[in-house]
TrEMBL record:
Residues of the signal peptide: 1-22
Annotated segments matching region Disordered: 27-68
Molecular function per GO: hydrolase activity
Name by which UniProt lists this protein: Alpha/beta hydrolase
Organism in which the protein naturally occurs: Hymenobacter gummosus
Compositional bias ranges of the Low complexity kind: 36-54
KW Endoplasmic reticulum (keyword) present: no
Record's keyword terms, sorted: Hydrolase, Signal
Source domain of life: Bacteria
Length: 384
């Protein structure tokens, strides 16, 4: 991984809606006994010479809408143009190690923010890390203000079960902590192809159980725990809810699923319509499945194919999708299947935006809307 991940406001607090959250990639640690130490994640400001006195500037694209996204919003297009300028190679042509080195949408948002003089908000959460088992770590975000015990959100990052890490999604976790007023337990599960299915799923459930058992020790309330995740992390969050139900473990109070991977069918309407989309396309999804699954049979497992699973008894759900995303049909189908199973669902699709838009509130207005909605749903579900 890079020595520095600049995390571009995957979540932005209402009071600092144009701010930026960033984090160094120095990994947080534990002592020799496995006890948590103060975490090294911190904010990193843009260079002073990039900050003009004119203040923040509007985000605008430089060219026409691309053929693969004729309805793309201007701010979203500017992010995709900037990402293209960073020179990344197609993920599906690379090894997992090479893919983990590529520029990300987060890098593109950071560059846009630097170019347009958008400042960062203050840090509002303290962090520490804990190793749960070999290869599995959590980073715990605790609000600096307010009196505990706080509600707890167990958060699973995206990346197709192959790429990305805690640092890549640091700002999402910080934003959840701030906006919901919650302790966030961000989970670093083992990844493929080094660790095939169902490793990431089992690690994710183990981390959820750890959060339940140790909530009091991290200023959390074990009776108010939710799960959340983006993309592959959305898949993991829903799978954790299913495992909790089936294993008679306390269910999450709510689940936030943001454009989750919910099926193994690469020929849905949105896969066909958005086969060449960016930053996620059909070929990349095939690459992710190939890296994580042991065989095609795993694709039909209900932990992967959520739309074919027994969804009865799952917690109330907030489900968000994006129009320009191969996974849009997956998410809509999952929302419909959850409702048919009797699960209360708040579903919202956002037009003109792509996969990964949710973390771009600093520059994409639809992300601000999505974050506000998700925060409100989580906060309501976790209020005593």
């Amino acid at each position: 991984m890079r020595s520095l991940y600049l995390l571009a406001a995957r979540w932005v607090a209402p009071a600092a809606a144009l701010g930026l959250l960033a984090a160094c990639s120095n990994n947080p640690s534990t002592d020799s006994s496995g006890n948590p130490t103060a975490d090294s994640a911190a904010t990193t400001a843009p260079a002073a010479d990039t900050m003009a006195t004119a203040g923040p500037q509007p985000i605008k694209p430089t060219g026409p809408a691309p053929a693969w996204a004729p309805t793309i919003k201007p701010e979203m297009q500017a992010v995709m143009e900037t990402l293209a300028s960073l020179g990344g190679k197609p993920i599906e042509t690379l090894s997992a190690l090479e893919a983990r080195q590529q520029p990300t949408p987060t890098d593109a948002v950071m560059k846009l923010m630097q170019q347009n003089n958008i400042p960062m908000p203050p840090v509002t959460a303290d962090t520490m890390s804990r190793v749960l088992m070999p290869g599995v770590k959590v980073r715990v975000y605790t609000p600096k203000s307010g009196a505990g015990p706080f509600p707890v959100i167990v958060y699973y990052h995206g990346g197709g079960w192959v790429i990305a890490n805690l640092d890549t999604y640091d700002a999402s976790a910080r934003g959840l902590s701030e906006q919901v007023g919650a302790v966030v337990v961000s989970v670093a599960y083992r990844q493929a192809p080094e660790h095939k299915f169902p490793t990431a799923h089992n690690d994710s459930f183990a981390a959820y159980q750890w959060a339940l058992k140790n909530a009091a020790s991290i200023k959390g309330d074990p009776a108010r725990v939710a799960v959340a995740g983006e993309s592959a992390g959305g898949n993991l969050a829903c799978a954790v809810s299913m495992m909790a139900r089936d294993k008679k473990v306390a269910l999450p109070k709510h689940q936030l699923l943001v454009y989750p991977i919910a099926g193994y069918d690469l020929n849905t309407p949105s896969y066909q319509k958005n086969a060449q989309a960016k930053p996620l396309n059909k070929a990349m999804m095939g690459w992710f499945f190939d890296k994580y699954l042991r065989s095609a049979a795993d694709g039909k497992n209900p932990m992967i194919s959520l739309v074919s699973a027994n969804l009865k008894g799952l917690p109330p759900t907030t489900l968000i999708t994006a129009e320009i995303d191969p996974l849009m049909s997956d998410g809509k189908m999952l929302a419909d299947k959850l409702q048919a199973a009797g699960v209360p669902v708040k579903y919202q699709n956002y037009d003109g935006v792509t996969h990964e838009f949710f973390g771009m509130a600093a520059v994409v207005p639809q992300a601000k809307e999505a974050q506000a909605m998700a925060s409100a749903e989580l906060k309501s579900a976790l209020t005593k």
